[in-house]
């Protein structure tokens, strides 16, 4: 509109009319190039070009796309760019096909399951050996994923589960990507919802522009609208002309001699306002998650040892590889096949981790354990990272909870912004909101030169220094942000990376001092996990001792002797063997005897001499 400037796809602001001065005219101030363009002064002439990632020609520069219909049918409009919507959308072993800008997930032939979480081979039902039960038309279910099957006589009756749309076998969530929702809503946890609650800071207003929450400070307030806006302090006009006072820059921008740039890790037009890289998961690619206003890989430190991690629609999914089993959020161990035993459809369990298996008519029936959500074999905790919770909650002990209780100090108020608890003192109070707020004492106005740092305009956890007649604010050591929004590095674990924990308001390694002697420590989702070193056993949280070698029993196959009378036992290679004594015959295991004891034991032409049959003639 006339009299307004800015990015029409984000926000327009009133154009300030500069005071006419006898100075050199800058042809680029104000810019004649229009929105989304760059103006360069070339020998007193304005040269216009489109800003990076914008197309067209000034003054009609525009993004590559605004809605899906401006992209090919196999692409979707994401952050004003035509991109493939498939990466990170479908589950493990599922295939993705883009139809009319929307990603369609399905399990491949021979696989079944939830294509948005995980597909697995169709289990082979064992042939029952007992009397044939009546055929259940719902086992296996013909209704497809996200559906419910009811047996009506001998026929199956299919319907979509609550909160799912379509008709079986094509039931699907209400949304998968933002473009499935109206422009004033975003896709959050597969539901079209207002993205504003929990997105903006104190004293900030929120409106939704093309699925994205746009935060601005309310009238009479300034600061970072994504954390906290503070009342504008009316200062006396500066004596010397300062091009940065008042600042021509928008929120979260830095002014340097009249030139505006976005703060570190903030993006956008610095003259109208910079915003963080993300405030919710839908601002990131589907294989990334929004953590501390940055798009990151949520996998590191999330899964247990030996487990694999896949990011599906912003959520890290942990699974045990083939040939292993266990809780993938703790540890996966190699499967040891037991000895052959009667067939038990629940041993080993086909249901996956965090599930229960019950035998019903010779068939294993799977269900998730209490406190876990989803459907086997993809049962998982309610949350693993805070990005899986509403913006007004954080993931604490695998549950979505309010992070405020116990976080702020006495007489302080707490507001959850983008999963993080923001503490502040109420109007008329001052102090450290993380410890205690107290009423501002009324002090008499002394007849002394005004100290711009008394009271401090810098906010809590900040240092104020006098520079000339103006205050210069900076955050105290070990605090982050920019005044008046200085805050500790962390107040709860989810504000740290998965390999660190929040200790004394600092992100630190929780391992030192956590485990006992002869134990090793690894951090899984902010929690130290202790395990005994190889060759040791015991309680890894107190101490591990070397595994005592079991003395090998010495084999004595000849004690007691297994041999009969007149036989001797000889040991060789751990085994015993019986042989008759010299000049004895017979079975050494039953008993050996001399060749003869009476003449009748010998042939008629021999005589028994010294227990041997001999010729009696020699010497006769």
From TrEMBL:
Keywords: EGF-like domain. Residues 24-62, 134-172, 342-380, 449-487 form the EGF-like domain. The keyword GTP-binding does not apply. It holds the Pfam family Dumpy_DPY. This is EGF-like domain-containing protein.
């Amino acid at each position: 509109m006339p009299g307004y400037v800015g990015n029409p796809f984000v926000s327009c602001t009133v154009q300030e009319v500069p005071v006419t001065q006898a100075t050199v005219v800058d042809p680029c101030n104000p810019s004649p190039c229009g929105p989304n363009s760059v103006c360069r002064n070339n020998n007193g002439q304005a040269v216009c070009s489109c800003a990076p990632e914008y197309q067209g020609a000034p003054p009609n520069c525009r993004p590559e796309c605004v809605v899906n219909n401006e992209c090919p049918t196999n692409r979707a409009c994401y952050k004003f760019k035509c991109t493939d919507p498939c990466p990170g959308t479908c589950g493990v072993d599922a295939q993705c096909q883009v139809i009319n800008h929307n990603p369609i997930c399905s399990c491949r032939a021979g696989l079944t399951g939830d294509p948005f979480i995980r597909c697995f081979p169709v289990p082979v039902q064992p042939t029952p050996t007992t009397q044939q039960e009546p055929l259940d038309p719902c086992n296996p279910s013909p209704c497809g994923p996200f559906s419910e099957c009811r047996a009506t006589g001998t026929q199956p009756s299919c319907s979509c589960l609550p909160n799912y749309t379509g008709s079986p076998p094509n039931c699907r969530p209400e949304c998968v990507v933002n473009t499935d929702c109206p422009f004033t809503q975003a896709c959050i946890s597969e539901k079209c919802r207002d993205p504003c609650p929990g997105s903006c800071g104190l004293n900030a207003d929120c409106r939704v522009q093309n699925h994205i929450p746009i935060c601005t400070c309310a009238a009479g307030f300034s600061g970072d609208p994504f954390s906290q806006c503070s009342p504008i302090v009316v200062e006396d006009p500066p004596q010397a002309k300062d091009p940065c006072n008042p600042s021509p820059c928008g929120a979260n921008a830095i002014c340097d001699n009249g030139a505006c740039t976005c703060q570190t890790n903030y993006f956008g037009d610095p003259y109208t306002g910079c915003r963080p890289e993300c405030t919710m998961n839908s601002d990131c690619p589907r294989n990334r998650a929004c953590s501390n206003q940055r798009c990151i890989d949520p996998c590191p430190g999330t899964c247990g040892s030996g487990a694999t991690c896949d990011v599906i629609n912003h959520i890290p999914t942990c699974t045990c590889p083939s040939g292993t089993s266990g809780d993938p959020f703790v540890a996966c161990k190699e499967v040891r096949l037991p000895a052959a035993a009667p067939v038990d459809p629940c041993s080993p369990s086909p249901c996956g981790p965090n599930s229960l298996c019950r035998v019903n008519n010779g068939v294993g029936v799977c269900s998730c354990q209490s406190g876990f959500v989803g459907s086997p074999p993809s049962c998982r905790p309610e949350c693993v990272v805070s990005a899986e919770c509403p913006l007004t909650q954080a993931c604490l002990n695998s549950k979505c909870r309010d992070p405020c209780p116990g976080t702020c100090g006495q007489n302080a108020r707490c507001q959850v912004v983008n999963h993080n608890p923001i503490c502040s003192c109420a109007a008329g109070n001052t102090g450290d909101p993380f410890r205690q707020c107290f009423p501002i004492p009324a002090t008499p106005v002394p007849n002394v030169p005004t100290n711009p740092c008394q009271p401090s305009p810098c906010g809590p956890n900040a240092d104020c220094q006098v520079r000339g007649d103006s205050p210069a604010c900076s955050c105290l050591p070990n605090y982050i942000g920019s005044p008046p929004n200085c805050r500790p590095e962390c107040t709860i674990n989810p504000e740290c990376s998965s390999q660190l924990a929040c200790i004394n308001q600092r992100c630190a390694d929780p391992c030192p001092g956590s485990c006992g002697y002869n134990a090793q420590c690894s951090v899984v989702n902010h929690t130290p996990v202790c395990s005994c070193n190889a060759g040791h056993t015991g309680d890894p949280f107190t101490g591990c001792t070397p595994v005592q070698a079991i003395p090998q029993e010495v084999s004595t196959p000849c004690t007691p002797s297994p041999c009969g009378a007149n036989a001797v036992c000889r040991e060789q290679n751990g085994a015993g063997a019986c042989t008759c004594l010299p000049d004895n015959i017979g079975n050494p295991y039953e008993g050996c005897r001399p060749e003869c004891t009476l003449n009748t034991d010998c042939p008629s032409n021999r005589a028994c001499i010294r227990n041997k049959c001999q010729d009696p003639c020699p010497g006769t």
